[in-house]
Write a structure and sequence with these properties.
The protein is mainly alpha-helical. A 3-stranded antiparallel β-sheet has the order 1-2-3, covered by helices on one side. The termini are far apart. The relative contact order is 0.17.
């Protein structure tokens, strides 16, 4: 119970959701730019601090359209990110989350790893 209350107090801080949204926006826009530069088709769905990356040109709106994405490419992407010390959810169908513990430095390190990985796919 105490941990839950501490979490609610931390989230009640002024600007916390704006900070989360800003970090996620920066990360996912950098992913989109890196993918475009590398010629890798991606669809990114994002709401606030949560986003999903799919290797497809088509919109992803449900499980059927998610399954049509290139999950083999996601596996290679995941393995490359892991080798760079970036721990993502291991499924192509899971969301990414930006949390208050993700500093600007961590977001930047992730962007650099994504950029390097996408250029090699």
């Amino acid at each position: 119970m105490a941990a839950g209350l501490a979490t609610l107090k931390a989230l009640n801080r002024n600007g916390v959701y704006e900070e989360l949204d800003k970090g996620a926006g920066r990360l996912f826009e950098a992913i989109r730019s890196a993918a475009n530069a590398a010629g890798v088709p991606v669809t990114i769905n994002r709401v606030g601090s949560m986003g999903s990356l799919f290797f497809t040109r088509n919109p992803v709106t449900d499980f059927e359209s998610a399954k049509a994405s290139d999950v083999g490419r996601f596996r290679r992407f995941y393995q490359s990110m892991l080798s760079k010390g970036i721990y993502l959810a291991p499924s192509a169908f899971e969301a990414w989350f930006i949390a208050t513990c993700h500093s600007e430095e961590i977001v930047q390190e992730t962007i650099e790893a994504v950029t390097s990985t996408l250029s090699s796919l």
